[in-house]
Predict the 3D structure of the following.
Amino acid sequence: MQYFSGHIIFRGKFNYASLSPHIRRIIELFLEFSGQKAMVQREGRLDLLVYMNRRDLMKGRKPEGVNRENAKMRLLFPLHRKEIALISDVPNPKVRDATNAIAEYLKSKGFNLEVRWNDLTLLRRAGKVK
């Protein structure tokens, strides 16, 4: 099965500041699996992406993630629950691979989480996907 989205949903006691030490690795894994790593490195933007996301996390806020214009895949932190979402405009096997890699990394760091697929409830309500 191919996926439009992968959702890493945090369970139990969780706060966004706890992701701060791990945001660089999360972003690196996402960029690697989504095929955007070389472009971000060429542009010299990796440190900026990490800095901006870490700054929000340290303040207990949801970070922006990686939402590049014209990208085939995005890393987002949706408003409706404590989660990391990887979203593609079309079904994409990289969504599965990236979601699993990030989830396994976070599990190895002791995070309690659940992975869901194609859970685009808000986008469905907005009529953007079926």
